[in-house]
Amino acid sequence: MSGRISRSRQVSGTSRISEEQINDLIIKLQQLLPELRDSRRSDKVSAARVLQETCNYIRNLHREVDDLSERLSELLANTDTAQAALIRSLLTL
C-alpha cells in the first residue's frame, strides 16, 4: 500500500476512495473523451493525461456552448416575433 493511501486512512470519520476505484473512474473518463476513447486497452494512458484531456474537453464544450448561445441570440434577434416565439417554445420542451 502506498504512503498516500495509508496516510489517508488515518483520517477518522471520512470515507476514502480506494486506488482501484480511482483507476476505474479514470478508465471511465478515458472512454468518454473523443481524443482517448479509441486507445486500445493495451495502450497505457497516464491518469494525468486523462485528467488533462478531460479539462481540455470541458473547456472546449464550454466554448461550443457559448458560441451556440451567441448564434442563437443572433438568430432570435434577426427573426420576426412569431418565429422567435416558436423557437423559444421548442427550446423549452
Automatic annotation (TrEMBL):
GO molecular function, one term: protein dimerization activity
Start and end residues of each BHLH domain: 6-61
Coiled coil ranges: 58-85
CDD domains: bHLH_AtPRE_like
Keyword Nucleus annotated: yes
GO terms, biological process: regulation of DNA-templated transcription; regulation of growth
GO CC annotations on file: nucleus
Keywords, ordered alphabetically: Coiled coil, Growth regulation, Nucleus, Transcription, Transcription regulation
Top-level taxonomic group: Eukaryota
Family matches, as Pfam families: bHLH_ILI
Localization annotation: Nucleus
The keyword Transcription belongs to this UniProt entry's keyword annotation: yes
Main location: nucleus
Protein name: BHLH domain-containing protein
Organism encoding this protein: Brassica campestris (Field mustard)
Gene (UniProt): BrabHLH021
